Amino acid sequence: MARVFNWQIGREMSYWYPGSRPGQQFAAVFDINKCIACQTCTLACKTTWTSGKGQEYMLWNNVESKPYGCYPLAWDVKLLQMLDGQNWNGRVYEGQTIFESAPAGERVLGWRPESRDYAYPNVGEDDCAGQVDKGAALSLPHHNWFFYLARICNHCTYPACLASCPRSSIYKRREDGIVLIDQGRCRGYQECVRACPYKKAFYNPMTGTSEKCIACFPKNEQGLQPQCFVNCIGKIRLAGWLSTPDKARADNPIDYLVHIKKVALPLFPQFGLEPNVYYIPPVHAPLPFLRQLFGPGVDDAVSAYRQAPKDADLSGLLCLFGSTEKAVWRWSRQGDSVAGVDQHGAQVVRVPIREPVYVRAAFDAKYQVARVNCP
Ligand code: SF4
Ligand code: SF4
Ligand code: SF4
């Protein structure tokens, strides 16, 4: 085991391979507050990448309702129980990661779901946590809540799938940090399925190999955002590149949200993989639940997001989500609009922070008709 630094848990940790960060790291921010669970992202990926034989059950992108939803069944609860705890001291995780708590002779603490665990991708959908069944929803105050958690592979800095593969079939690309499975080398041992704590590696029984989200790298190479991003109805997603905290740039949109505003957080940082998909937490959900999901930065993130209406830069940047198919490398706000440029410095999008509102007279005297103010 090598020693590597994981900034998300604020300390060094053990990992199977020495640290080797890519030149650029593909990363994304999902604003959970805006997701409506329409599953358009799920279908966008499905129809693009997993419509073949043996892929029927696979959802490289899935959206589950928290707290009860999970695909595959109990993917999160099971590992949290095995990992035993939430031992944070401020921003430093003092518990063990899944690499440090691996049983003797194994590289990662993991478990492999059974086939039937993948059979209920919408289990728990829209189920409310709280007191509905006790009738309390009929009186105030009440604490009924749920939210939608969209999930893809996190293209982790320290991937458990990669660490666990006995064939060295999994690699992290130097140029963009995207994690891929070499289909020519894979022999279908399914160690990656067992090791990935997010359960985002899948076994294809028809090909006898494992597969996973590829971050739509053919689009990425053309400066475009992935399918599940550009098709997102709620405009909750923004893809880009993440620097390490010491190299964060305010004009890099992902850096700004993750490192500078600290409004976007990793999913289960305590697992120790340094995942590269970041979530703006749902501000209406209970903080204790959110802390075990996103770590100790949740309180500040929720507070920053609540301040967004008074924060022209943050609210402006949030307007760039879902505004263009092009990958946005740098962003800036000029007055009431916000712009994004590509890697060559060419502007690819400009959007107003506030849309103008036109109210028409209910009765149009010229044409003698009554109108409604609906689009
Ligand atoms: S398309 Fe967007 S809004 Fe719809 S479920 Fe997916 S992430 Fe949520
Ligand atoms: S989320 Fe899972 S499959 Fe994706 S890189 Fe991380 S460990 Fe591998
Ligand atoms: S990034 Fe591409 S491959 Fe990955 S889940 Fe989204 S659509 Fe599928």
The CATH architecture of the largest domain would be 2-Layer Sandwich
Q: Sheet with the most strands?
A: 4 strands, mixed
Please write the CATH class name of the largest domain.
Alpha Beta
Radius of gyration: 22 Å
Characterization of this structure:
This protein has 10 helices and 19 strands. By secondary structure, the chain is of the alpha+beta class. The protein has 2 domains: 2-240, Alpha-Beta Plaits (2-Layer Sandwich), CATH 3.30.70.20; 309-375, no CATH class. The strands form 8 sheets. It has a 4-stranded mixed sheet with strand order 12-3-14-13. It has a 3-stranded antiparallel sheet with strand order 15-16-17, covered by helices on one side. Strands 1-2 form a two-stranded antiparallel sheet. The radius of gyration is 22 Å and the shape is globular. The relative contact order is 0.16.
